[in-house]
Fold this protein.
Amino acid sequence: MARAAAGDRAAWHALYVAHADFVHRTASRFAGNEADARDITQDVFLSLFLHAGGWKPTASLTSWLWRLAANRCLNEGAKAGRRLAAGAAALETVPEPPERAPDRQLERHEEQERVRTAIMALPERQRLAVILSRYEELSYEGIAQALSTSVSAVETLLFRARRSLAQKLAG
């Protein structure tokens, strides 16, 4: 990061290559569509570039990047509102190997759609906490840093999100 802040283009490229997938995956799952995900990813790296001089070597670069991505996602959500129908497809994970029975494939797809729709219906901070926890496998501490909150607040967000998901998926 120090080399990138000094204008080293190779260092910028290495930072982008190392972290762009995480930012894009998070943005895509949160925003619900590819265009917004690309905009969020671009804005996060532009912000990283513009504020590179303010990074302190004692701070974790990934924590800083998580915070930038989380803030940008939340800002985008506040501007754009929820896009439930279009956004549900963005939560797709890598497709599993197809099973032989077509009816089992259909059941699995329908269940995945129900889960994606339920996640997209969560309040924004809960949704982002779930995405960072479940899909990006961040620790509670990492999520707390990304959301600029405490670990206990993350625990509460995830508890409420899981309770809400259980209620929506049970009915």
